[in-house]
């Protein structure tokens, strides 16, 4: 009888402890699930906040009626073919203004542009058209630009035109243009220009200006994020 009573007492004392252990385990699991759900919602809301901010920037930059940046232009690419604003449509395009005789800033920025191209291509494929527009039409012929850009990246497409055509496209993109007209061979003159990359969407609308202060990674992230947000058609290849 003593032995039986001792066994019964043992069962009576361990059953509440087992129930407490199960309840504690359940509470820990629920707490963990709650924390994970909270973390997931935090990440989601941060992503949505950033996406909506990018959408507001892109929409604001389109302006009302006439675009704030961009518009009709007529140039010649480095292969000698006609190129207009219509040729920017279908892909995202990254437009940079410079000149081949630029001693330091343009080479640095074109090196950055090459890095952006590779990072965007690695994430989204061939969806970005990188465009270099010369602010020095007197010296930058299509052949000169073609050889110059070959040192940076094979995907870059260079543009030039007459003095008036270049002046017009600079005005459309709000780029400072200082090159004088009717330059004589061998004449010295100052070429100055704005230092921005202009990101345009597949419909040819201005999205965002990327300044010189951006690193390659930061600039590529801006472009990749806008591409990821795009809901319309986009050409690859």
TrEMBL record:
GO annotation, biological process: cell redox homeostasis; intracellular copper ion homeostasis; mitochondrial respiratory chain complex IV assembly
UniProt subcellular location: Mitochondrion inner membrane
Domain Thioredoxin residue range list: 62-228
Keyword annotations of the record: Copper, Disulfide bond, Membrane, Metal-binding, Mitochondrion, Mitochondrion inner membrane, Transmembrane, Transmembrane helix
Binding site for Cu cation: 102, 106, 193
Chief localization: mitochondrion
GO MF annotation terms: copper chaperone activity; copper ion binding
Annotated Gene Ontology cellular component terms: mitochondrial inner membrane
Entry's transmembrane regions: 27-47
Disulfide-bonded cysteines: 102-106
CDD domains the UniProt entry points to: SCO
Keyword Transmembrane helix appears in the UniProt entry: yes
Family to which the UniProt record says this protein belongs: Belongs to the SCO1/2 family.
Full protein name: Thioredoxin domain-containing protein
Source species: Hortaea werneckii (Black yeast)
């Amino acid at each position: 009888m003593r032995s039986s009573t001792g066994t019964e007492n043992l069962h009576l004392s361990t059953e509440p402890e087992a129930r407490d252990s199960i309840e504690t385990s359940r509470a820990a699991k629920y707490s963990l699930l709650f924390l994970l759900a909270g973390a997931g919602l935090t990440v989601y809301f941060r992503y949505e906040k950033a996406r909506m901010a990018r959408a507001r920037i892109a929409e604001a930059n389109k302006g009302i009626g006439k675009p704030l940046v961009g518009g009709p232009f007529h140039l010649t690419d480095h292969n000698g073919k006609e190129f207009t604003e219509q040729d920017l449509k279908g892909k995202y395009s990254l437009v940079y203004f410079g000149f081949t005789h630029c001693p330091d800033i343009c080479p640095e920025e074109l090196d950055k542009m090459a890095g952006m191209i590779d990072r965007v291509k690695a994430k989204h494929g061939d969806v970005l058209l990188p465009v270099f527009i010369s602010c020095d039409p007197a010296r930058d012929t299509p052949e000169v630009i073609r050889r110059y850009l070959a040192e940076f990246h094979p995907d870059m497409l260079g543009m030039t035109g007459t003095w008036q055509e270049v002046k017009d496209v600079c005005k459309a993109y709000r780029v400072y243009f200082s090159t004088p007209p009717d330059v004589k061979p061998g004449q010295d003159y100052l070429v100055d220009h704005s230092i921005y990359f202009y990101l345009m969407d597949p419909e040819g609308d201005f999205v965002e200006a990327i300044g010189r202060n951006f690193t390659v990674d930061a600039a590529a992230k801006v472009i990749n994020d806008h591409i990821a947000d795009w809901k319309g058609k986009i050409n690859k290849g």
